[in-house]
């Protein structure tokens, strides 16, 4: 397995946000993690990327425990993150934002400044602009490009459609297949069930810090997802 | 019925012990030497300054590195009252408090425009400016300073009675008077801060310290609160400064505005003892005095040790020695936390 | 004519203050760390250079070159072992730790080197001057000013044209996201403090060659440096130079009126700027 979590727990002080989450991502696979606000999706991403530290064995990368490593160490192993809210660096230009994504991990691969400008041509025009001077959709492109610059084995996309217009979301999602062609596995965290089902090989649904459903999009019914997403009562 | 209270058994014990200590402290000059009285005076005034700095930084979030401005201006105002207006030194001490308050107004007006670290440096600069301006005041000795005139020191209010009572010389009588005044001041300041923290103002202070944005959103006027804390601390620091220099009877800009004596030591006392508690400065001043006595013969090693201890405490016990004691024992000698008391509910709350 | 001379001397003095301040500005800009021991570290570096000169018989420039890597190491160690542990949302712990360091360093120097005034011998440069027609300027102040410019140009080049500089700016913006980019913020901070200490060594060279120094003068240098940084605005190195020049010019004009007003005039200039522009003249980064 490229990435596994085993009984992953996470706390914010007294408050427990994850209760033993198990997920697995195979090489080249595309996984979607869906769930309502507060289901623990972002906490899961923060735990995998080392923003929240865990016990070593709770997160495995190719079988190696990485749960206690720092964000930087995890990133250098080829797990790149498109963080929620884009989080571009305001002091850096668009091009510098892209460059910084690749400077700590330089490995051969399909992604370079050139190929990312090929993927998002508008960024080439804006490359001297400050990252924060762009529209939301363009900022999202920079954030994705920035993560790709390290030629990751696994790309984690946290809420990449949040706050964007539908037409922009469609453009952003249209590049995911091209990223997969480059060889990277993808984890997409989404609140939008339709988007997630369309793109993923497998879907994990989370609720209240637990995984409530694991399925292939083709095999799963609306009702099952509804129950897993909102709880039995809904 | 349920009641919100800050009263605990430890708190009541503290009150009794405090009253007993103060009562025991009053007749002390009759049985101890002048040296002990001078040491106690030093401890009490440092404790007062430490409580006041702790009020600013530990409760008000105002990390001032310029408190020497208020010590100095208070001391100089006292000297001015005695030398220029012919006041009795005891009454002139009150002038020190007024001067501290007056200096605090422009200081706050300026420094409150600055955030965090800027605030710290801003207060320091203002203290330097005040020192340099005072050094230009030739009537009070300019840069070299001056002494209280003989006729003033020999006529300090109450010293005649003290001389008659204890049969001591004039200088010793002044020390005893200063000691009593310091005792009074430390009781007023510590008691006042405790009362402040238990009042609604204290609740607002705690809210601001924990989360200033949130406090503002529930209607706490953070700006007014900071002004209040800053002015109170400045006035009381001015009083303390005036008292300290009434005892020494000699003043110079470098001594009265010394950043080491009136801010560095004070910060170390609070940090080592435990910032953000009333107990902290008390523990801190005891440790400080023991270190000072033990290392007195080693010159600058003493200050170096103090600096290193402060660093170690910040690294490994950021809540200070009292924080260590209190987290082990759960003891709060000055309880300020509100607790709900009343009949127990089945199964607990 | 005398005013032109005063102005030029003030500007050149500002170069010295900018040198004191550049390292502080760098660290402050990247990690919002207020190093209250900065002035004492300059004095420490001056003693280090002095030891190279007196004990090893080296020329001051060479002694400073040797001191640079040592000071870099010291800065790196200080940051990794001590300051990184107390950095956080609350500014009080780092403030108190560096305050403790300041007092410890000052008194450690006092114990080691005594309170005697010392000076780094600069040979023929001492007292040499250049006649520029309308004014005569000392070679040493001119060299100081030129060094300040070179240091600022070099730091800016590092900041804006290298991968390390990119990492500095990114970490300054958002340390958590920088971590997601494979950048270890604590390592970046350690390097930044190391570089700041190299600048401190350059400042120390001029501090020690231009005038006498003793262990107690650190805090005053810290205040001048801080005033320059704050006047210039957070994170702007050219702003820091401008701030240094403002303090320097205010001081020389104050001294021209009354020698006792030199320091006071500098502080008053700082207070005036703070009243008009509390965030400084050229703020780059936001708090």
How would you describe this protein?
Chain C: It is a multi-pass membrane protein. Chain C: It is found in: Cell membrane. The complex is a heterotrimer of chains A (234), B (349) and C (287). Chain A is built from 10 helices and 10 strands. Chain A has helices at residues 41-48, 71-76, 94-102, 113-119, 121-125, 136-148, 166-174, 176-181, 193-199, 222-230, and strands at residues 3-12, 15-25, 30-35, 59-61, 64-65, 79-82, 154-158, 185-190, 202-207, 210-215. In chain A, strands 6-7-8-3-9-10 form a 6-stranded mixed beta sheet, with helices on both faces. In chain A, strands 2-1-4-5 form a 4-stranded antiparallel beta sheet, covered by helices on one side. The radius of gyration of chain A is 17 Å and the shape is globular. The mean pLDDT of chain A is 91. Chain B is mostly helical and 349 residues long. Chain B has one domain (3-341): Orthogonal Bundle (ABC transporter involved in vitamin B12 uptake, BtuC). In chain B, 72% of the residues lie in helices and 3% in strands. Chain B is built from 17 helices and 4 strands. Chain B has helices at 9-25, 28-31, 34-59, 68-83, 89-111, 116-134, 150-153, 159-166, 170-198, 200-210, 212-217, 222-248, 253-256, 259-273, 279-294, 300-316, 320-329; strands at 3-5, 146-147, 250-251, 339-341. In chain B, strands 1-4 form a two-stranded antiparallel ribbon. In chain B, helix 3 packs antiparallel against helix 12. The longest helix of chain B is centred in the middle third of the chain and has 29 residues, at 170-198. Chain B is globular. In chain C, helix 2 packs parallel to helix 4 (92-113) and helix 10 packs across helix 11. Chain C has one domain (2-115, 124-155, 183-276). Classes of the chains: A alpha/beta (234), B mainly alpha (349), C mainly alpha (287). At the B-C interface, helix 6, helix 14 and helix 16 of B face helix 3, helix 4, helix 9 and helix 11 of C.
